[in-house]
Design goal:
Oligomer: single chain
Strand order of the largest sheet: 6-7-8-10-11-9-12-13-14
Helix content: 25-40%
Shape: globular
Structural class: alpha+beta
């Protein structure tokens, strides 16, 4: 069983011109570490001993697996590394021999962030090796020691990230075992695995035409029927076009993504209901036959959905695995490289999702008019403010009728208080005391998503417990709470700090009171300087390990206080706050 296989974290460093490579690895269970330096025989010994292990890495799918396979196959790993990095050739195209090497891999990269960025968030040392990776001679002992330390550091950081996303590994293993799939399926992405389970197969012709998507017939629109008519007009079936209209008192955009509608800088108390459609897109696919047409047996998708609902009620952990298949099916419809690719169906799902929610909003407006307030609409739900418990009960009856007619199912949060900046940034307190927040300013942070945590905490403390911004920030003593995580994109050549040029693409920046410190500037290819957003005019950089490090006297706390107040004001003016001091930050 694949569940019982050893998991080995692995990372390679290759100096192609020096004909030199290093492999570092760490056993996930025993935490034993091992380093191999330019020694094919030793790598073969370890590989043959661990053929049935799962090799875990950050970008292992795109890089490390091909270096490992090359060494095992007797192919020069330095040439393979050059093909992958310098020539941007996909590993499977380099040499057929690489395909003959059996290997179980698990990729933990999220494709959006590099490992260095996650190390930055975690407060770890993000300094690059001083050894030139274009070195054209064999490295000396000192350089080798530094490269080994650098490589093993990345392995340890990958280990920490794997701990944070281990639930993904468990869910994928659960799918493989539940559907009795071959162990090699661990190598697939979630979307690839889903398409395999659903037995999807692209036809031998292109499914690129999207204009003939179908609008469902259970809609019952009157006041807003013109919005449905807009979608039915073939001249509007262009992804560059969108419709902006007023819906129940809020400016609302209709187009080719989810519904986006919200009151700006809004606060409300009591008799608030947030209603989300349960498994919205999967439910639309099942109810209206909008699953990818590449699926041979659509009933299997419904069977998975029904089984997942049953398992969820029973607290069976396999429900999280089945959720992967359900949720991957929509995105895979729009992925040209996936067997589920069917953009016409994907477009139909998205458009009908917006119209279904519009239908519900219209019914609420018809019943309540100005005696209720439409707060927001998003991709899979809506939120309203009512005047009494009786009004909430009437709303729930409207929802019940809507569900019976459309085949959807709604889940309701009953809210004590909401403070909202816009549809993507809000925080609300449920009647049972639980807190939900969304958006860059107030979202729940983690060790691998940890930018300006003190500002996030200060805003939430003020909004929820009415604790002054100054109190929260002045009482914080850990340096990591004040880190501003900076990423410099490829549009810029490097960073300038005072008189120093910095070639790093990620930086950990702090506000400084010292007049000797300067701003952090990024340099365009033409040499023009540009200040990095949300960084102070005076800053200091600490790219070493700051875990447990305390705040120095020269940290400028006022910069963080002012930034927190600026962000707070984007939610709602301070003089309208209500004290919620009986609640704790989650």
């Amino acid at each position: 069983m694949i569940k019982e296989r050893r998991r080995i974290i692995i990372d390679f460093e290759v100096l192609s011109k020096a004909n030199f490579w290093i492999c570092c690895m760490k056993d996930y269970k025993t935490q034993k570490e091992h380093t191999i330096i330019n020694d094919r025989e030793e790598l073969l010994r370890v590989f043959n001993k661990n053929k049935d292990s799962v090799w875990v890495g950050y970008n292992i799918r795109g890089y490390d697996q091909w270096i490992l396979k090359a060494i095992v196959a007797g192919i020069d790993p330095c040439k393979v590394s050059d093909m992958l990095i310098e020539h941007k050739v996909s590993g499977w195209k380099i040499d057929r021999k690489l395909h003959k090497i059996p290997l179980y891999i698990f990729e933990i990269s999220d494709t959006y962030r590099s490992l260095k960025e996650l190390e930055l968030f975690m407060g770890e040392d993000i300094r690059e090796s001083t050894v030139d990776f274009n070195l054209n001679r064999y490295p000396n002992n000192k350089e080798i020691d530094e490269l080994v330390s650098y490589c093993m550091h990345d392995v340890k950081m990958t280990f920490k990230v794997f701990e944070q996303v281990y639930y993904r590994y468990e869910a994928q293993i659960g799918l493989i075992e539940y559907f009795n799939l071959d162990s090699s399926m661990i190598n697939k992405t979630e979307a690839q695995l889903s398409s395999y389970i659903l037995q999807a197969k692209k036809p031998n012709y292109e499914r690129n035409y999207t204009k003939d998507f179908r609008i469902i017939d259970t809609l019952n629109l009157n006041k807003y029927k013109y919005i449905k008519n807009w979608y039915e007009n073939y001249n509007n079936r262009d992804f560059k076009k969108y419709l902006r209209v007023n819906v129940y008192g809020i400016e609302t955009d209709f187009g080719w993504g989810g519904l986006h509608s919200a009151r700006k800088k809004y606060e409300a108390h009591d008799f608030i209901v947030n209603s989300d459609v349960s498994s919205f897109y999967p439910s639309i696919m099942i109810e209206y036959g909008l699953l990818s047409r590449n699926v041979k047996k659509p009933d299997k998708y419904k069977e998975i959905r029904d089984t997942r609902i049953k398992f969820k009620k029973e607290n069976n952990p396999i429900e999280k695995s089945l959720k992967i298949v359900l949720n991957s099916a929509y995105g895979a419809c729009l992925d040209v490289n996936n067997e589920l690719y069917d953009p016409q169906q994907g477009t139909a799902i998205c458009v009908n999702g917006q119209l279904l929610l519009l239908d519900l909003i219209e019914k609420v407006e018809l019943e309540f008019g100005d005696k209720a307030i439409f707060i927001q609409g998003n991709t899979d739900g809506v939120m309203f403010k009512f005047n009494s418990k009786e009004d909430v009960d009437r709303y729930l009856e409207i929802c019940s009728n809507w569900c019976k007619r459309t085949g959807m199912e709604l889940e309701h949060d009953f809210i004590k208080k909401i403070i909202q900046k816009d549809v993507n940034n809000y925080i609300y307190i449920k009647e049972d005391g639980q807190i939900k927040s969304k958006g860059a300013y107030v979202k729940k942070l983690s060790i691998i998503d940890n930018d300006l945590p003190i500002v996030n905490k200060a805003i939430k403390e003020k909004l929820i417990n009415n604790i002054d911004i100054e109190t929260t920030i002045n009482n914080a003593t850990d340096l990591i709470d004040f880190q501003k995580c900076v990423k410099v994109t490829g549009k810029y050549s490097h960073v300038v700090y005072g008189k120093d040029n910095i070639d790093l693409k990620v930086l950990r920046v702090f506000a400084s009171k010292s007049i000797l410190d300067s701003a952090i500037m990024k340099v365009k290819p033409d040499g023009k300087l540009e200040k990095i957003s949300y960084t102070p005019d005076r800053a200091f950089i600490d790219n070493g390990n700051i875990i447990g490090k305390k705040v120095p006297d020269y940290l400028d706390r006022n910069w963080y206080i002012n930034l927190a107040k600026e962000r707070l004001d984007s939610f709602i003016p301070e003089d309208t706050f209500t004290l919620f001091d009986y609640l704790d930050i989650l």
